[in-house]
Amino acid sequence: MPTFTAPDGTLLAYRVLGDGDPLVCVPGGPADSLYLGDLGGLSAHRRLIVPDLRGTGRSAVPEDASSYRCDRLAEDVEALREHLGLAVMDLLAHSAGANIATQYAARRPANVGRLALITPGTRAVGIPITGETRRELARLRRKEPWFPSAFAALEAVNDGTGSDWEAIAPFRYGRWDTAARRHHAAGRPDNMQAVTLFAAEGAFDPQGTRAALAACEVPVLLLAGEFDLNSPPPAVTEFGRLFPDSTLVVQPGAGHYPWLDDAARFVATTSAFLRPGG
Q: Is residue 250 part of a domain?
């Protein structure tokens, strides 16, 4: 597995999948990037460069735990670009990884060709997601056999009386089938310190990031899942308005991992956007 060195000397690993023009893919979590797979077959269209964030997967644990902070992880993206020898790189980021990629694009727009934000987290730009928004989306799944127990757990979380995240897991997928269960079981974060410190004080500057994005002319794709409680379509729509050149796509029937729910549709959407002139 190839590696590169972060600015603070931490040794970071990455995977390479497929052929063609490189596409740097920033995972969420922070979690082992293996949960991304090959993004539903996107590797047939682009050479995917998929880093393991520091302290996850095969990347080393940093000496300074404060370097798990989201804004500092953006510097690891820059180190990877330099390691790859790319003057300009296309970026794809999923979930919490979108907070990293967004801060990177805000700081270094000249280094980004195209930016694809897949079911993106919105903390970097200060867009809140209310419990009521999540309830409304959850009720769209009321005919599912698992709905009663999952919705009860969601209500308890929203009310601050419960924290049964396992019971809520079906809401993260467009289909709660064997593949989804397997994916969920394999994709749990392996470094809870990295998860906890990702959003530590100072990790986000929403006002400054918004101001920088208003002048960022990078073409941006924002892809939301119709049923995604983590990154609801209304929040992703609001996110898209912060960019001068953005395209919003809501994938029907998808949850937080749209490449699992409908790989063909996901790959068609993202590969078309990432093509020159797309």
A: yes
Q: Cβ distance 96 to 225 under 8 Å? A: no
Q: Treating both helix axes as pointing N-terminal to C-terminal, what angle do 97-107 and 70-84 enclose, rounded to 10 degrees? A: 70
Looking at 119-257, list the stretches that DSSP marks H as alpha helix, in order from N- to C-terminal side: 131-138, 147-159, 165-168, 178-186, 192-198, 206-213, 233-240
Within-domain flag for 65:
yes
pLDDT one-digit tens code per residue, 88-144? 999 999 999 999 999 999 999 999 999 999 999 999 999 999 999 999 999 999 999
Domain that holds residue 86: 3-126+191-274
Task: Examine residue 39 and state whether it is found in any structural domain, yes or no.
Answer: yes
Three-state DSSP state, 88: coil
Is residue 278 pLDDT above 70, yes or no? no
H-helix or E-strand containing 215?
none
Residue 134 lies in a domain: no
Query: Checking DSSP bridges between strand 11-17 and strand 47-51, what pairing results, if any?
Result: antiparallel
Nearest alpha carbon to residue 118 among 25, 244, 222, 41: 222
How many domains does the chain divide into?
1
CA pair distance 114, 270, nearest whole angstrom: 11
pLDDT tens per residue, range 31-83: 899 999 999 999 999 999 999 999 999 999 999 999 999 999 999 999 999 99
Q: Residue 102 sits in a domain of what CATH number?
A: 3.40.50.1820
